[in-house]
Amino acid sequence: MVLDPNGYIVTNNHVVEGATQITVTLWDRREFPAKIVGTDPKTDLAIIKIEAKDLTSMKWADYDELQVGDVVLAVGSPFGLSSTVTLGIISALGRGNVGIADYEDFIQTDAAINPGNSGGALVNMQGKLIGINTAIFSRTGGSEGIGFAIPSSIATDIVESLTKTGKVVRGWMGVAIQEITPALAKSFKLPEQRKGVLISDVNENGPSHSAGMRRGDVVVAFNGKEVQSVSQLRNLVARTTVGKDADIKILREGKEQVLKVKVAERPSDEVLAKREPGPASAPTETVKPPDNVLASLRVQMLDAAMQSQLNIPSKTSGVVVSSVETGSAAESAGLQRGDVIQEVNHEVIKSLEDYQKASAKVKKDEMVVLLLSRQGNNLFVAVNPK
C-alpha cells in the first residue's frame, strides 16, 4: 500500500526479504524500481520507496473503533491475479501466539487471503487501512477462512520508525514473562478470575530490577490498561517510548502495589543471548527420589559441561533433570530432560542436598511449583498429582 504521496510503500518483510531487485507496478500499470528503506522481521513489516510524486495514498483507520463482525475487504494479487478484492468480516481481534512473528496482535478475518495477498491492504467499508494482510492458516495451501493481518495499532508505529530512521526501537523492561495456568494461579494464591502474566525472571541489568520487581510477581496492569496475556504485555512495552516511566500494577503475595519502571531500549538479540562461561566442573551425583509427585524425576548436580551444553548462564544454580518417567504427572506438566530445577515451592535450590530437603517437605498428594531454567530461559511449572 502507498502510504505517502512521495512513494513510500508498506509491505511484508517476507515479501522483500533476500530480494536483489524489486519492481512496483501501480494500478495504472506504471512500473518503478524500488529500494528497501527498512525492515522489521519481528513484526514482518517492511518499507520500500519508489521515485514518484503525487501518488494516491491510504489513510490509517482508528484501531480502537474496530469490532468483531465489522465488514472488511482484503486487497492483493492472489496467484498473480492483480487487483483482486475479497469480502469478509473481522473474526477476532488481538490474536496472539500464532507463531508467525515475534510481536503478534493480529486481526483475524474470513475474507479470502491466498498466496499473493501478503503485504496487501485490509480495509474497512470507508476505504481506510485497518491492517496489512500477512498469513493464512491452511491445510491445503488455499484460503480456509482463517487469515491474519497486522493491525494499524502496531503498524503505524513501526512504519513511522522505519520511514524516519530505517530501524525500529522497542521498549524493554528486562523481564521474562509467562501465562498463568489455573495450577500456577492456585500456587501463587491469586484471586479467582484474576488476569495477568507471571514474571519468571528479572534481568539484573534491566529497568525492572532497579524498580524492585521480583521473580514471582504477577503483572495485572500496564499504564492503567488491564493485562490479559503475554503477547499483549509484550506489545504494550515494545510500543512505549524509551525513557518514559510506566506504572506497573503487580500482585505480590496476594497484595497489589504499583511500581514505576523507566522503560529502556530493547538490546539486540545477540546481546540478550550472550552467556558467561560456566564454572569449574563438579562431580556428578544423583539422589533418591522422594515419595510424592516428584518421584518420577531423576536429577543430578549441575556442572560446567551441562551449563555450556544447555545454554545456561553461569550464575544459575540448581539440579538437572536427567530423566522423566513416561506417563507421570511431571511429564504431563511439561518437564523435560535437561531442565534445571532452581526452586521447589519457592525454596531456592543450590545443591542436591537442598533439593532433597525441599522435595521431602512435599506431601504425597500435594501439588508442587518448580522454577525451571530451560535453554537459558526461566519459567514456573506446577506439577499436580491429580
Structural summary, described in words:
With 386 residues, the chain is an alpha+beta fold. The chain folds into three domains: 63-154, Trypsin-like serine proteases (Thrombin, subunit H, Beta Barrel); 172-271, Pdz3 Domain; 293-383, PDZ domain (Pdz3 Domain), CATH 2.30.42.10. It is 16% helix and 35% strand. The protein has nine helices and 24 strands. The strands form five sheets. It has a six-stranded antiparallel β-barrel. The radius of gyration is 25 Å and the shape is elongated. The chain starts with 7 loop residues before the first strand and ends with a strand.
Distance between the termini: 54 Å
Order of strands, main sheet, comes to 5-6-7-10-9-8
Q: What can be said about the biggest beta sheet? A: 6 strands, antiparallel, barrel
From the 3D structure, determine the CATH topology of the largest domain: Pdz3 Domain
- Given as residue ranges, the uncertain stretches (5+ residues, pLDDT < 50) are 275-285
Question: What is the mean pLDDT?
Answer: 87
Question: Helical element count?
Answer: 9
Supply the CATH class of the largest domain: Mainly Beta
What's the CATH H-level homologous superfamily of the largest domain?
PDZ domain
Q: Nearest-angstrom radius of gyration?
A: 25 Å
Roughly what fraction of the amino acids lie in strands?
25-35%
Q: Structural class of the secondary structure composition?
A: alpha+beta
Number of domains: 3
